[in-house]
Amino acid sequence: MKLSISLFFTFLVICTSLTVVAQTPVITKVVKFKPPVVQTFLGINTNGASVTKEEAAQLIALPLKITDAKKNAYVVDSYQFIYKRKSVIQDEETGKKQSTFTTVADKFKASPLPKVWIDNLKGGFQKGEELYFFDIVVKDNAGRIFSAPELKITIQ
Fold first, then answer.
1. Among the listed residues 105, 99, 152, the one whose alpha carbon sits nearest the alpha carbon of residue 130
2. Residue 15, in any domain of the structure
3. Distance of alpha carbon 138 from alpha carbon 143, whole angstroms
4. pTM (2 d.p.)
5. 110 vs 114: CA distance, rounded Å
6. Residue 54 in contact with residue 127, Cβ under 8 Å?
7. Domain assignment of residue 16, yes or no
8. Is 26 inside any structural domain?
9. Of 15, 26, 80, 123, which is most buried, counting CB atoms within 10 Å of its CB?
């Protein structure tokens, strides 16, 4: 009887230690990746550019370009876009009209913008409006993902 109890406890200890060994996580080293310094372009324009209404109508249909100093191009994985639109509202109390800005925005997985966005934006650009591309995620040839700088273009 004592022998069977000690065998039982020995069996428990062995099973417990095997379970612990089976649950030990495997640690793999990841090679450090230093993303390249890249620049974001829409046409030839970079962050902070000012363009005319006519130029904006052409630019909106172009894809984002992300390149490094050696002119290597990177694939755009996703980005967010905000169009800061000039609007006119009427004050209910005074009846006076005043200018204000509204925004339309979305996240996209392909560049250029979808055709419906291009068609809706193309004809109505006004002075002071902004095209703003941000949270730009790109991939290199090895499939590694990193961020690219934002791009804000003001319409003059």
1. 152
2. no
3. 9
4. 0.76
5. 8
6. no
7. no
8. no
9. 80
Q: Where are the alpha helices (DSSP H) in 60-150?
A: 115-122
Q: Scan for tokens 């990841």, then name that residue.
A: 30
Number of domains in the chain: 1
Determine if residue 71 is left, alpha or beta; phi over 0 gives left, psi from -120 to 50 gives alpha, anything else beta. Answer: left
The DSSP symbol for 144 reads -
What domain range is 118 assigned to? Answer: 38-155
Task: Compute the distance between CA of residue 91 and CA of residue 88 in angstroms, rounded to an integer.
Answer: 10
Closest C-alpha among 155, 149, 133, 152 to residue 39: 149
What are the residue ranges of helices labelled H in the chain?
2-23, 53-59, 115-122
- Per residue in 86-133, pLDDT (tens digit) is 988 888 888 899 888 999 999 999 999 999 999 999 878 999 999 999
The mean-pLDDT minimum among 19-23, 28-32, 40-44, 117-121 falls in: 19-23
Is 117 inside any structural domain?
yes
Torsion of CA 58, 60, 63, 67, to 10 degrees: 90
Element (H, E) at 134: strand 130-139
What's the CA gap between 155 and 6, in Å, rounded? 84
Locate 58 and state its tokens. 């052409």
